[in-house]
Amino acid sequence: MAEDDPLSGEPRPRPASPPRQGSGVETGYAVLGTMISGMAVWGGAGWLLDRWLDTRVFAPVGIILGMAVAIYVVVARYGAAPPSSGGRPNRDSSGGRRSRPRTQKGQR
After folding, report:
1. Would residue 52 be called left, alpha or beta, if left means φ above 0 and alpha means ψ between -120 and 50 degrees?
2. Contacts of residue 99, Cβ cutoff 8 Å, sequence gap at least 6
3. How many CA atoms are closer than 13 Å to the CA of 45, on its beta-carbon side?
4. Cβ atoms of residues 42 and 62 within 8 Å
């Protein structure tokens, strides 16, 4: 038992807990930030390439490519919805309509 207690001055280990799920607003801002940063980074790289090569084609291509990569990242990260506790019945249950209650012979 004494081995489990941390020595004085050492921080205690945190208990294992599931990662905190953000609210809808936090997720929305994260998606928006990913989209804008994708356009800015890839568009900026295209703009620098345009300046270096003295062309005007790489900035728009970089913006479109950045948007496509950002959409891919958003779908990969936030696309799968967590399984809900309610909703569908278990696959083990018979499901469907319930049968009529059985009555004794001669009763309806």
Report:
1. alpha
2. none
3. 11
4. yes
Ordered by start, the domain boundaries in the chain are 25-77
Distance (Å, rounded) from C-alpha 27 to C-alpha 34?
A: 11
3 state SS of 39: helix
Q: What is the pTM of this model?
A: 0.56
- What is the 8-class DSSP label of residue 105? T
Q: Which amino acid is at 17?
A: S
Query: Of 70, 69, 50, 51, which Cα lies nearest the Cα of 60?
Result: 50
In the chain, count H helices and then E strands: 2, 0
pLDDT in tens, 92-105: 555 666 666 667 77
Sign of the dihedral through C-alpha 79, 84, 19, 23: positive
